[in-house]
């Protein structure tokens, strides 16, 4: 018998509903119990929390953060666009594999487009095999890298000259620095695609660090980089002390590093690999990050793994195309598969001139056939349509695929972005 599944958004002012989301979350995932209830409630997605019921019983939860995503412009930069950041997705153990997840995913996509008026949804996936079937594509990837104490970065002198003009100051992370962090994040997001900027309110929560969540590490720190009285970068990090056979072997964990230019990034990186009693500095680095390019090879960074970073889902295709820059002119007919938002599936004429794209319905035979997840994968420049065609995901006329591929290419791949 088919299940009766309903998804509703909680009232942000209803404390009991917020508590229900947290209670369900602790059933879905393994809760440590270390974090005080008040702190856990502070981090619960109150703004947009969703509860799914199945046959009248609470069966699943999801949340959505108010975020901005930097998408490519026509000339190699990036511009910020509003998006919804899907989070806290989980199904109660008693209701798994009964259609609850699919109902929540479809509800969030429609809510993002129809009620929030946004063209893009994004997420960070705890499990990589789930979200492709809902139209998400892996838009950026990162390398888990470890830099030994005293690592040298082979930056050219022109970059080093800028780094030497940069002043660094270390502080303890605190909510009162949220507005400053938010302003810097928005400025950095105009440099390259792939930046995800949390709201000003969420930035304050991000910089709230509690003893119960830290374990053996120190309180979170901020390393601010300024030049001529202006913020040009910041690293969010913490140190975990360790001694190995009488030698200092502590670890620096960098949660995120923002910079407006290569000089600021160099100044921050060189400080982070030269902290007393620390043996290594670890953080996720995008393949095109200048920190990687200043090393002899990726192997020099002791890369221990590659992971998907940001997943992108287009929910309003004509708007998304108009909001994204195009590197070259294009005029192709594209057939899009979308099994959830079926009203944006079908055949479109995709044109671009002077960097500006447009999408209109077409009755012509398609030149290119693809899935909405293919577009999510290439939207930030982290993958290419040509590669996805070689894998068999994208089909059609080879010249047309190449034309659209060139229009969506970016000079530099997307950055790694903050968790949410």
In short:
This protein has 420 residues and is α+β, with helices and mostly antiparallel strands. It folds into 3 domains: 5-136, Gcn5-related N-acetyltransferase (GNAT) (Aminopeptidase, 3-Layer(aba) Sandwich); 142-173 and 209-308, Gcn5-related N-acetyltransferase (GNAT) (Aminopeptidase, 3-Layer(aba) Sandwich), CATH 3.40.630; 315-408, SCP2 sterol-binding domain (Nonspecific Lipid-transfer Protein, Chain A).
What would your notes on this structure say?
With 420 residues, the chain is α+β, with helices and mostly antiparallel strands. Helix content is 27%, strand content 33%. It contains 13 helices and 22 strands. The protein has helices at 15-28, 37-42, 100-115, 157-164, 178-188, 200-206, 211-214, 262-272, 290-293, 317-323, 372-378, 385-390, 398-408, and strands at residues 5-9, 49-54, 57-72, 78-91, 120-123, 137-138, 141-148, 167-172, 196-198, 221-227, 230-240, 243-244, 247-248, 250-259, 278-285, 305-308, 311-314, 330-337, 346-353, 356-361, 368-371, 395-396. The strands form four sheets. Strands 1, 2, 3, 4, 5, 6, 9 and 17 form an eight-stranded mixed β-sheet that branches. It has a seven-stranded mixed β-sheet with strand order 8-10-11-14-15-7-16. Strands 20-19-18-21-22 form a five-stranded mixed β-sheet. Strand 2 (49-54) and strand 3 form a beta hairpin.
């Amino acid at each position: 018998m088919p299940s009766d599944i309903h998804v509703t958004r909680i009232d942000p002012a209803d404390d009991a509903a917020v508590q229900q989301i947290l209670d369900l979350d602790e059933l879905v995932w393994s809760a440590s119990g270390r974090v005080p209830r008040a702190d856990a409630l502070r981090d619960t997605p109150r703004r947009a929390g969703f509860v799914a019921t199945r046959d009248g019983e609470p069966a699943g939860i999801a949340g959505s953060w108010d975020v901005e995503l930097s998408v490519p412009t026509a000339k190699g930069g990036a511009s910020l666009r509003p998006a919804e950041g899907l989070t806290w997705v989980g199904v109660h153990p008693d209701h798994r594999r009964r259609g609850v997840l699919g109902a929540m995913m479809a509800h969030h996509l429609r809510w993002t487009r129809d009620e929030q008026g946004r063209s893009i949804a994004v997420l960070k996936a705890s499990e990589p095999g789930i979200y492709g079937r809902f139209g998400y594509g892996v838009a950026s990837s990162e390398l888990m890298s470890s830099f030994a104490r005293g690592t040298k970065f082979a930056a050219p002198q022109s970059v080093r000259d800028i780094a030497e003009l940069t002043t660094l100051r270390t502080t303890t992370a605190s909510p009162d620095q949220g507005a400053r962090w938010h302003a810097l994040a928005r400025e950095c997001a105009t440099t390259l695609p792939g930046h995800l900027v949390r709201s000003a309110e969420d930035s304050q929560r991000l910089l709230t660090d509690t003893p119960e969540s830290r374990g053996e590490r120190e309180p979170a720190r901020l390393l601010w980089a300024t030049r001529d009285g202006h913020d040009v970068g910041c690293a969010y990090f913490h140190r975990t002390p360790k001694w190995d056979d009488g030698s200092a072997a502590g670890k620096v964990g960098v949660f995120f590093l923002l910079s407006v230019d290569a000089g600021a990034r160099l100044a921050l990186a060189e400080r982070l690999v030269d902290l007393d009693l620390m043996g290594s500095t670890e953080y996720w680095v995008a393949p095109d990050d200048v920190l990687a390019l200043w090393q002899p090879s990726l192997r020099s960074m002791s890369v221990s793994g590659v992971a998907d970073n940001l997943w992108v889902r287009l929910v309003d295709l004509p708007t998304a195309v108009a909001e994204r820059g195009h590197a070259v002119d294009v005029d192709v007919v594209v057939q899009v598969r979308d099994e959830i938002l079926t009203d944006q599936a079908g055949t479109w004429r995709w044109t671009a001139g002077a960097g500006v794209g447009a999408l209109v319905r077409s009755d012509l035979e398609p030149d290119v056939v693809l899935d909405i997840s293919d577009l999510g994968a290439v939207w930030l420049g982290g993958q290419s349509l040509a590669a996805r065609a070689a894998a068999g995901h994208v089909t059609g006329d080879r010249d047309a695929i190449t034309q659209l591929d060139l229009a969506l290419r970016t000079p530099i791949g997307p950055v790694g972005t903050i968790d949410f």
